[in-house]
Specification:
Radius of gyration: 21 Å
Mean pLDDT: 86
Distance between the termini: 25 Å
CATH class of the largest domain: Mainly Beta
Helix content: 40-55%
Structural class: alpha+beta
CATH superfamily of the largest domain: Pleckstrin-homology domain (PH domain)/Phosphotyrosine-binding domain (PTB)
Shape: elongated
Largest sheet: 4 strands, antiparallel
Low-confidence stretches: none
CATH topology of the largest domain: PH-domain like
Number of strands: 7
Strand order of the largest sheet: 1-2-3-4
Number of helices: 3
Number of domains: 2
């Protein structure tokens, strides 16, 4: 049993948050104008709300992933139990800006794992050790998937 843990940026959460922050600010300003609150107060509340929401978004968009390899399946904190026999292929699309891959599953399902490049100037990036562990996870997944497929084809 082999275990890997990562902190992964979630683009869907980032996009959702980037859309929701202006919507919530608009609702705050609109409701403040309807209640006839002075513009100075609205500006102060709006700036405070923006800063709080930005901090919440930054913390919310990073997801913890724990992956455990078992003899017959992979268990993921984000995707649940994934049997090796249901795995079709590992794809690394050329358009990904960060190290990552897509695991294609039977039934047109897929699992995505993307990790950020290590950047010393940005505190919200993965470390080099995390990137190395991520690459090792990908290699072990490929090996286990190939072993499972060879057992199935040998039967």
């Amino acid at each position: 049993m082999r275990t890997f843990e990562f902190v992964l940026p979630d683009n869907r959460r980032a996009i959702t948050g980037a859309i929701m922050i202006p919507v919530l600010l608009f609702i705050t300003i609109l409701s403040g104008k309807m209640m006839d609150i002075p513009i100075n107060w609205l500006l102060g509340v709006g700036i405070t709300e923006f800063l709080v929401l930005a901090v919440i978004l930054i913390k919310w968009m990073w997801r913890k992933e724990r992956l455990v390899f078992y003899p017959d399946y992979l268990e993921s904190a984000l995707y649940g139990k994934i049997p090796y026999k249901n795995m079709i292929e590992i794809e690394s699309p050329w358009y990904l800006l960060y190290p990552g891959f897509t695991l294609r599953l039977i039934g047109k399902r897929s699992c995505h794992w993307v990790i950020s490049h290590p950047r010393p100037s940005k505190p919200l990036s993965n470390t080099q050790d995390e990137v190395d562990a991520f690459n090792h996870f990908k290699e072990i997944l490929k090996k286990n998937m190939d072993d499972s497929h060879s057992k199935i084809s040998a039967k």
